[in-house]
UniProtKB/TrEMBL annotation:
The keyword Glycoprotein does not apply. Keywords: Membrane, Transmembrane, Transmembrane helix. It is a multi-pass membrane protein. This is Uncharacterized membrane protein YgdD, TMEM256/DUF423 family. GO terms for cellular component: plasma membrane. InterPro entries: DUF423. It comes from the Bacteria.
Length: 125
């Protein structure tokens, strides 16, 4: 995946996490607190922001380092964020607790992304 596209996706994801964070803190706070899901929602927002920043930094790294593992890391960050944070957002919005069962799959993609990033940088040095 081209580095500029990775930076753009990371930037858009970061903006979405700020929007969803503000929406949760203001419009949804009472319902999230009542359902006991405020912490879950905040976790989704935090992880989305962390990995948005990771994507931006990965895109910048890819200006100087090229390796297929860095590209694999970008896909894994994107898929992991969508599955991890997305499943938590859906859990909070719908109350369907079974959605929590797919959250760890997103977590595995995020772990894989960090490992692929490390391998990719190692192999370029």
């Amino acid at each position: 995946m081209p580095h500029k596209l990775i930076i753009i996706i990371g930037s858009i994801s970061g903006a979405i996490s700020v929007i969803l964070g503000a929406f949760g803190a203001h419009a949804l706070k009472d319902s999230l607190t009542a359902s006991g899901r405020l912490d879950t929602y905040e976790t989704a927002v935090k992880y989305q922001m962390y990995h948005s920043l990771a994507l931006i930094l990965l895109g910048i790294l890819m200006i100087h380092f090229q390796h297929k593992y860095l590209s694999y890391a970008s896909y894994s960050f994107i898929i992991g964020t969508i599955i991890f944070s997305g499943s938590l957002y859906l859990l909070c919005a719908t109350g369907i607790s079974k959605l929590g069962a797919i959250t760890p799959i997103g977590g595995l993609f995020l772990i894989a992304a960090w490992v692929l990033l490390a391998i990719g940088i190692y192999k370029t040095a």
